[in-house]
Design goal:
The chain contains eleven helices and ten strands. The chain is of the alpha/beta class. It has one domain (3-321): Aldolase class I (TIM Barrel), CATH 3.20.20. The model is unreliable at 330-350 (pLDDT under 50).
């Protein structure tokens, strides 16, 4: 496989064929660095050295009635996580502000559950309005589950920029990871959000027993639904969940998956997301040559590396933060702390 030609094809028409995508996943480890360089050509063509920094605010943690097998917040989960009802309005704003001060250009407001009530949407809308009043340039993405009629319109009306609802895995594999809702529920929510003015943020979780063919399948399905922001998560097999102890990813496998997504999605924001620290390990900085987006600090119910380490990794790689022409320095102050409980403590993306 000529990876230079593949990169040029991705640049020219924004995508590669299913067979080419599968061949990328099946490259031998000794071609990984060549592959990273080729995917980097696509990243730099569309995004240069700019990286979009995202920050998660976990508005409500645990207590979810859905049974997604990978999730520490699922029905019946015995995972050792924080569980709390909705943060207060001021605590949610404080958490978002902490991420913005640390350099985040997008704040992701997340709440566990099947989907929001209209009261929940009103609650999130007030947070969005206040964030936009304070800093109109900040992007706000909401992630609240399956939407009902009128809810996407409400979120868009108050200035919400994007809606996240991951497909998570291929349609052909979906019944193996969840029984309380199906693939169509997820796809329809993403399409509904797009139709009502919200940018579609939707991605996948790799390492849940899917085949290479199914990774290609979900990559193409994400393209079909018009995802312009694609978070790529790597399974974190929480104790107390059905996928506990499930390990099948290597650093090279993760880099091949990221490169395949970059080739398929071309100009999209490809985000290296949860599990990057655990699975990419010492090769984590190479993911930034493929991906133009990452989460700062922690995730929803698990700790990532410290925010200063994320910023230092960007600085050492010569990257800029999206919206700024200034190169980062590796001496950024520690402005993102870890949350040890709900309320005013502001930095666990749980």
């Amino acid at each position: 496989m000529d990876l230079y030609t593949l990169a040029e094809k991705a640049i020219a028409d924004g995508g590669i064929s299913p067979d080419e995508a599968l061949a990328v996943l099946q490259l031998p480890d000794e071609r990984t660095y060549e592959l990273v360089a080729a995917a980097g050509r696509v990243r730099r063509h569309f995004h240069g050295v700019a990286t979009k920094v995202n920050y998660l605010v976990n508005l409500k943690s645990g207590k979810c009635p859905e049974d997604c097998f990978y999730c520490s917040q699922r029905l019946g989960s015995e995972a050792d996580i924080l569980r709390y009802t909705w943060l207060t309005h001021e605590d949610a704003l404080a958490a978002a502000r902490a991420g913005i001060r640390a350099g985040a250009g997008r704040v992701c407001l997340v709440a566990s559950g099947r989907g929001p009530s209209n009261r929940d949407v009103e609650r999130v809308s007030r947070i969005v309005e206040d964030l936009k009043d304070e800093n109109p340039a900040v992007e706000v993405c909401a992630c609240l589950g399956i939407l009902k009629d009128g809810q996407a319109e409400k979120l868009a009306a108050v200035g919400t920029d994007a809606y996240n609802h991951n497909l998570n895995t291929a349609e052909s594999h979906y019944d193996n990871i969840c029984t309380t809702h199906d693939y169509d529920d997820r796809r329809d929510t993403v399409q509904h959000a797009r139709e009502h003015g919200l940018s579609a943020c939707s991605g996948l979780i790799a390492g849940m027993g899917e085949t290479d063919e199914q990774l290609v399948e979900v990559a193409l399905q994400l393209k079909e639904i018009g995802a312009d922001s694609v978070p790529v998560n790597f399974l974190m097999p929480f104790d107390g969940t059905p996928l506990e102890g499930h390990h099948e990813l290597t650093p090279h496998t993760c880099l091949r998956i990221l490169a395949m997504i970059r080739f398929v999605h071309g100009a999209a924001d490809v985000r290296v997301s949860a599990g990057r620290e655990q699975h990419l390990r010492s090769l984590q900085p190479l993911s930034l040559e493929i991906c133009n987006s990452l989460f700062l600090g922690d995730y929803l119910t698990s700790e990532g590396q410290a925010g200063t380490q994320d910023l230092g990794m960007l600085a050492d790689g010569g990257y800029t933060i999206y919206g700024s022409d200034h190169r980062l320095t590796a001496t950024a102050p520690e402005t993102v702390t870890r949350r040890r409980g709900a309320g005013t403590e502001v930095a666990a993306n749980a």
